[in-house]
Fold each of these.
Amino acid sequence: MKITAITARTFRHSTNTVRDSDGHGHPGPVSQTTSAILSIETDEGLSGHIVTRTADVSEALLDRFVRPNLIGQDPLCTEALWYKVYKWQRLGAGLLTDRVLAAVDLALWDLKGKAAGMPVWKLLGGARPKILAYGSTMCGDDLENGLATPEDYARFADWLVNTRGYKAVKLHGWMPPVPGAPDVRKDYRACAAVRETLGPEVPLMLDPHHFYTRTEVLWLADKLAELDFAWMEEPMEEASMSSFKWLTAKTKLNILGPETMTGKHWTRAEWVRHEACDIVRAGVWDMGGITPAMKCANMAESFHMSCEMHGTGAANLSVALAIHNTSYYERGLLHPFIDYDEPKAYQNRIDDEMDAEGYVHGREDPGLGQDLNWDYIEGNLV
Ligand code: MG
């Protein structure tokens, strides 16, 4: 089988999320946005697809870095193809981001699953047929009855666990430009209110403001340890690995990372080697695809460490179901004003339907397990 064409098509759809001046998503009025679908096609009629941001798959990027390395190649050789594209990052003038690499790798894995007639989570190992999700909230806001106060978080967490069926909850704290943020004490009050409401047994995590100082973070970490939180992630700039090594040594709370730091599995191996985290973070979109995420997970397992996947979607779910050493699938982001379970216009169903017991199940469909509404996509091309 040979790759014959690589195309990216942009399509219009609506969104009910707005971005604040720091880039965080909040509920907002319905507006129009665009996404792109990257398709890799072959001479045998099979194709692989992934939906991503339009900027990740521009014609200039595909022409310079992707088509010259992939056209004419065997799409099943995902390891070889990942390296062929990845090596261009060194002299790619910063244009070839890990998100571009991820989009290509994910479309290739989708294709590979279809060629094998297998879901990708089984092709990668198939460690479990289902996984518990944690409800991952949006960042705090200043919306009435939204996520503006510790009591709002407590009320929403109560709904997530006692009505919707989540077995674990992760809070995102308040971040600028929300008035009053950042404030470790307010973050703590939200965590304490949620713990008080849900009782001692429900696993809880915090993903706060990402630019606290060491002393602010240590205070917060020790307070969360008292509340028996499962972990805290990315409370400081991750480029300073020494700061995380310092924090991990000083607090009982489990520190998870790195999440957004560049360097893929190599950076994560350094964090493990230097004891800068207790739990390893991997995300297909942060680290260049399924191919490096699996290496990270296997590395973590070799050190008896859990590897928790960052973010939602069919590809992160595939890795979480494939590996032995993980606890949860991150489902969200969730907010009282948004119905997460409603498919987007370009989907026939969401990638990660959750049952009443809080489990997301692996599907038997070949490929990544997306169910795209092709009529919608083709009817709304830009
Ligand atoms: Mg995070």
Amino acid sequence: MKISPTLNEKLATVQRVCILTGAGVSAESGVPTFRGEDGLWSKLKPEELASFEGFMKNPRNVWAWYNHRKEIMHSVEPNAAHYALATMESFYSEFTLVTQNIDNLHQRAGSKHVLELHGNIERSYCMECGKYFTDITVTEEASVPRCSCGGLVRPDVVWFGENLPEYEYKEAIRAASNCELFFSVGTSAVVYPAAWLPHVAKQHGAYLVEINMERTELSQYVDELLLGKAGEILPYVVECIKKVRS
Ligand code: BJW
Ligand code: ZN
């Protein structure tokens, strides 16, 4: 494994780092990704499971899917990539970790400052009164949780056609615009507006690095492409940081 002298120099000298992660960062923990041969969308329809219309048409189906995924997410552990990112945070005065994942694995690995662009599987909210829940457990199979006001409760995640949470998105744009070094890790970079962030960073002069198992839509724009598993490359990057910053 090797990084360029330029990246090594950046790791040594920069203060402001921004990271965007996607499903690939949790793949080595056993959380399925969305796209590609074995991805969720190869067997399931996003318009049925990840859209407001799909939810209103069949909330039981959508809740059953999220409960199933929650079980998987509870049964897995953070991997070397999550831990490496948590370690990286301590070396830089401004370090922003932006994730599209809803699985909590960054927080469980010890990352402190995480911006969740697509929500969190542990939270849900009432579509009538807006009340938030963090303890929704659907015990009966295929049942739909309701609020005390009678309203339908939905997972607090961002589906297609929905806006991203305002604070998180604004902060993510701010961090991407201000950083000197940006890493896009384990994301196919096809879902917008998250996929704008690396471009925003580059437009503002950041050195752009991608870590992925394969080339993506973003690869042609990056300064450095590190092809391989996030769980192998990120710990190596942290070793490099320790050598130049300790
Ligand atoms: C590894 C690895 C290892 C594997 N190591 N790497 C046409 C053009 C442009 C935009 C649009 C358009 N038509 C519609 C839109 C908008 C739409 C969009 O972008 N669609 C595109 C897909 C075309 N976006 C939206 O609708 C967003 N909202 C929005 O735009 O609001 C404005 C608006 C309002 C009203 C009307 C219209 C617009 C919202 C997007 C919400 C996405 N939601 C989901 C579900 C979230 C909840 C949940 O998890 O259930 O978010 S979909 C899914 O995709 C999930 C993910 O966060 C997101 C991104 O996926 P990610 O993370 O990149 O995963 P994969 O599987 O794609 O990639 C994994 C990568 O890892 C691969 O590259 C592997 O190679 C790699 N990998 N193992 C390193 N070990
Ligand atoms: Zn309610």
